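Thread: "does anyone have the structure for this chain?"

Original post by V.I.:
We have the sequence but no experimental structure in hand. Need at least a predicted one for the grant figures.
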Amino acid sequence: MNRKILFAEDDPTIGSLTAQYLESEGYEMKLCTSGASVMMEFEYFKPDLCLLDVMLPIKDGFSLAKEIRVKNAKIPIIFITAKSQLRDVLEGFESGANDYIKKPFSLEELRVRVNTLLAFADDLHVPKDQNEFEIGSYFFNYHQLLLKQGDQQWQLSPKEADLLKELCLNVQGKMDKSAALKKIWGDDTYYNGRSMDVYITKIRKYLAGDPRIEVVNLRGIGYKLMIRE
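Reply from O.Q.:
Generated one for you, C-alpha cells below.
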C-alpha cells in the first residue's frame, strides 16, 4: 500500500509539480490549495505525513500544524516556507513541525526528507507488544528503560534494556548469543561476549524477585528466558 501525503500549497505550479513528482515516487497525494480544507481532508484521507506551506490563505501552516498535533501527536509534519528568519523557523518547530524546507527547493531533497521522516515514524510505531513486556510479575518498558515489579522499579542502562528486550522477544526460545552480540555490541568478539555475560548476571539479579523466571545458559548457543506457569 502506498504511503499517503497530505500536501497544502496555494501556488498552483509548485503544488502540481511537487504532487506529480511525489506520485511518481510511489506516494498517494492529496493536494489542498487553501488552509480551509486541510483539517477535513486530514480526517478523511488519513495521511502518513503532512507537507504544509506556511503562507496559506484562510488558515496558515503554523495554525494547521497545531490542530493536527491535537489529532495526532506523532504524524510527521514538514513545512515548506519562503521564510528563513530564525524566529520563523523556531515558530514552525514550536507549532509541531518535524522538519522544514525553504523555497525554492529541490524535489530530490524533499523526497529524501520525506523518506527519512517516514522511516523514523515507522521505528516509533513498532507494535506495542514489541516494546512493552510482561515478564512474570514484572513489567518492562523498553523505550523508558524501565523495569517494574509492584512498587519497585529499576532504571536500566541502554545495553541492559537492549539485552532484556532480545530475551523477551525470544521468550521460551533460544536467544542466539552471536546474533545478539552483533545486534547490540556491533561485533561478536570474545571480549564483547564476556561483557554480555556480565549483563546477563545483572538481569538475573533484577528478575530474582519472581521464582518462576529463569535465564538459562544454553552452552555453545546463547541464553533462554524461561517463565514457568
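V.I.: this helps a lot. Helices lie at 12-24, 38-45, 61-71, 86-94, 107-124, 158-169, 177-184, 190-206.
O.Q.: and The chain has eight helices and twelve strands.
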